[in-house]
Specification:
304 residues; five-stranded mixed sheet
Length: 304
């Protein structure tokens, strides 16, 4: 889309925070052009926190934002849905510190945005176009971004589990398949890790209602998986949300292997610090650009 968009009308969703177990209501409000995505803690006098990389605070099992000691937790699913729906400017009001987990996917948030509708604004949309490759690695975990003609993601995961194993998927949000192919993919975890995470103060309300829970050789959810590669699809969902913290839609090819929230946040931060690696352009300036051939982060895969 050439122009910026906000939502056409207010819309709300209530639920429970996955890690805190606290009831929360999320309300999306239209915002002026060039505002970006701003969270407001209505329980703390509407304290605002911009959804930008400099406010990232915690990135272990979720992407959380913090400003002046005020926290907004588990933002990635909503941010992913907003980015995929083409929402540039919105105020997300919440009355607690964590967004509702809903069913563990981005689909409830996307449907929420669909109910609100979109309104075109007069300001032109600005894009962050990648000019040269950047890469970050941490052992077997790697993520990189390369020049490309549009925003594309190639994600590869490896887990020693019979339902996961090695999965790789390429996805372009411009394909229009986000609602059917990515948004329904749920967060997942392993049953043997649940008690450890709860002792650490996490996933206090984690259940089969809001996550895929894996046993040693299967899945506990009675309905099974939504996709055979639901795990890889959810990783792409999270990445779209994390990269929205750049503040502009990305024009580049992201290649990720066994990555995580922390690595994704680190690459966004590295991009912002490397001003020669990207440029801000509007839609009219987006001429076709030659893609990198065989992104090395994926072309040099190591044996599992």
């Amino acid at each position: 889309m050439e122009y910026q968009h906000t939502i056409a009308s207010p819309v709300s969703l209530s639920g429970i925070g996955l890690h805190t177990g606290v009831p929360v209501t999320l309300r999306l409000m239209p915002a002026a052009a060039s505002t970006g995505v701003i969270f407001k803690r209505t329980d703390l006098d509407d304290f605002p926190i911009e959804a930008r990389a400099h406010n990232v605070a915690r990135v272990s099992y979720a992407t959380s934002l913090m400003k002046k000691g005020v926290l907004i937790s588990t933002t990635e699913h909503l941010l992913s849905a907003l980015a995929a729906a083409g929402v540039d400017n919105v105020c997300a009001e919440i009355d607690s510190l964590e967004l509702p987990i809903a069913d563990g996917s981005a689909l409830p948030f996307l449907r929420m945005i669909r109910r609100a509708g979109l309104r075109r604004q007069r300001a032109r949309r600005k894009f962050a176009r990648i000019l040269k490759p950047l890469e970050i690695s941490d052992g077997a975990k790697r993520i990189a971004v390369y020049p490309a003609g549009d925003f594309r993601i190639t994600y590869r995961i490896v887990f020693p589990h019979p339902l996961i194993g090695e999965q790789e998927l390429e996805f372009s949000p411009r394909s229009g398949d986000y609602e059917s192919a990515i948004a329904p993919a749920r967060t997942f975890g392993f049953f043997e890790e649940v008690e450890m995470l709860r002792k650490s103060g996490l996933i206090r309300v984690g259940s089969l209602e809001n996550a895929v829970v894996l046993t040693r050789d299967g899945v506990m959810n009675p309905e099974g998986l939504r996709f055979p590669d639901e795990f890889c699809r959810h990783k792409i969902l999270d990445l779209i949300g994390d990269f929205s913290l750049l503040g502009h839609p990305l024009v580049g090819h992201v290649g990720a292997e066994r990555a995580c929230h922390a690595l994704q946040a680190a690459l966004v931060d590295k991009l912002l610090r490397n001003k020669t690696a990207w440029e801000i352009v509007d839609a009219a300036a987006l001429a076709p650009q030659k893609d990198c051939i065989a992104p090395p982060v994926l072309a040099t895969q190591q044996p599992a």
